[in-house]
Amino acid sequence: MQKLLSFATLIAMGGGIWMAIGGGALDQLGADPNAQSAQPTASTPAANAWNTTPQTAQTPQATIANMPVTIGGAAPQGQDGLTIKIASFNIRDFGDKKMSERRVVALLADVVRKFDVVAIQEISTQNTRHMQDFVSYVNQAGAQYDYVVSERLGNSDQKEQYAYVFNTKTIVIDRSSVYTVGDPNNLLSREPHVASFRTNVDPNVAFTFILVNVHTVPKDPALSQELDVLAEVYRVVRRSSNGEDDVIMLGDFNASDRKMSQTRLGMIPGLMCLLGGNVFTNVRQNALYDNLVIHTASTSEYAGRSGVYNFAGQPLNLSQDEAETVSDHFPVWAEFNAYELDYNGRMANRGGATVR
């Protein structure tokens, strides 16, 4: 069952609102990466929350990137078991009409199967079976995906839902962790949707992480105000996470990395957009709207590879108009180590030992 956390509740757990965001107090979000005793602080979830049989653990070669390597327009490589790929996809107006178009649904299902977790925005239907039917289509090819979906959200009559669709072979969700951030003061047009995951390997060494799915309004001044509020959302989700330090905010920010850097969200020390520069995420290839945001000192599991998946390219070679029948956004993705790493990039064991 989903639970609602209001800003008031989160603030009670996390401290005062807007506390010294511009003054450096948040640089304690990540422990000193040079500290000899630094260990990941991810909490080990309760056994009954993580209902799965883990994959056989392998010892990965740790990869740490100080700066993102963005692969614009490239499809992600196949999964190798040592890494996972987390994606975000705004499927514009994803409702009954698109579900009735077999070619569109087939393409969307193919896109989802390329990733381990996909955060979806802009689900627009009152059909309570919508995501169940879509994931059933994803699984027709022999895949084993599951999903969680939010309630219908929004300040206007055009409400929408968020969803996470994930590969159960590689990803486990803690269903007790799923909630929508409450917004009693109506500071956001759509409240973010939060869930905790881990990779499906030995739980003692699995990468655990929290995803925060967002979709902002498209224009200023409301956009800048919402990006400011998302800074507080990021902080309080992290503070209320029972020690989990890998918090990844992702979705349709309706803003470039440069725009985000000028808001309170971009002023959180150590927070980094994984896509930036001359990378475009819309089908028209003239704007950067979608992104994944990590805290670099904490999420050493980021493997240094991220990009935009251009589903209109080869082998389909869709025209712009054809691509936009699917969405006006391309999915964005980033690759992460499947194993928990300490701040020095070594695989860590929650029993206290570090695997060298």
TrEMBL record:
<keyword id="KW-0378">Hydrolase</keyword>
<protein>
    <recommendedName>
        <fullName>Endonuclease/exonuclease/phosphatase domain-containing protein</fullName>
    </recommendedName>
</protein>
<dbReference type="GO" id="GO:0006308">
    <property type="term" value="P:DNA catabolic process"/>
</dbReference>
<dbReference type="GO" id="GO:0016787">
    <property type="term" value="F:hydrolase activity"/>
</dbReference>
<dbReference type="GO" id="GO:0004536">
    <property type="term" value="F:DNA nuclease activity"/>
</dbReference>
<keyword id="KW-0540">Nuclease</keyword>
<dbReference type="Pfam" id="PF03372">
    <property type="entry name" value="Exo_endo_phos"/>
</dbReference>
<dbReference type="InterPro" id="IPR005135">
    <property type="entry name" value="Endo/exonuclease/phosphatase"/>
</dbReference>
<feature type="region of interest" description="Disordered">
    <location>
        <begin position="32"/>
        <end position="53"/>
    </location>
</feature>
<dbReference type="InterPro" id="IPR036691">
    <property type="entry name" value="Endo/exonu/phosph_ase_sf"/>
</dbReference>
<feature type="compositionally biased region" description="Low complexity">
    <location>
        <begin position="41"/>
        <end position="53"/>
    </location>
</feature>
<comment type="similarity">
    <text>Belongs to the DNase I family.</text>
</comment>
<dbReference type="InterPro" id="IPR016202">
    <property type="entry name" value="DNase_I"/>
</dbReference>
<feature type="domain" description="Endonuclease/exonuclease/phosphatase">
    <location>
        <begin position="87"/>
        <end position="271"/>
    </location>
</feature>
